[in-house]
Design goal:
This protein is mainly α. Helices cover 75% and strands 0% of the residues. The radius of gyration is 16 Å and the shape is globular.
Length: 149
């Protein structure tokens, strides 16, 4: 799943100007703070909301059509939720969260996380994938300064 995300989102990110290689010069404690804080938000919180709470568990009682409809709705809400969150609570990130490259990458990530959740039947797989993507972006691809954290 991470390979799919990397192969699709890295070119989009570099083309859109969202990504540039710049390793964040932080202390060990600063890195640990990012690793821990980003695990809980956005990763755990968003996966709990957009995967666990919005997606029905795949069971024989849930028709495939319902599962795909809810997945579509969940992914759409996940993507549009980012600019809405920025507009309401974190205006400094609005430019990043409305960047077409960011939104397309968020769409790809949302689809991948949904597939991961369905395949693993666990919240932990999409949380870990989401967390790796976020911390790599923040610490290696200049996401930290782009979000003005």
């Amino acid at each position: 799943m991470l390979l799919i995300i990397a192969l699709t989102c890295l070119p989009i990110g570099f083309y859109s100007g969202l990504l540039e290689i710049r390793i964040l010069p932080l202390s060990f404690l600063g890195i640990v703070k990012i690793l821990v804080s980003r695990f809980f938000f956005p990763c755990f919180a968003e996966e709990l909301l957009f995967r666990v709470l919005l997606l029905p568990r795949p069971t024989p009682n849930n028709p495939v059509k319902i599962q795909f409809t809810m997945a579509f709705l969940s992914i759409v809400l996940y993507v549009i939720g980012h600019p809405i969150f920025a507009a309401l609570f974190y205006q400094k990130a609005f430019g990043v969260f409305t960047n077409p490259g960011f939104l397309l990458s968020t769409l790809i990530l949302g689809i991948t996380l949904t597939i991961s959740y369905w395949h693993s039947r666990s919240i932990w797989s999409p949380i870990v994938i989401h967390w790796i993507v976020v911390v790599v972006w923040l610490l290696i691809f200049d996401g930290y300064s782009k979000l003005d954290l």
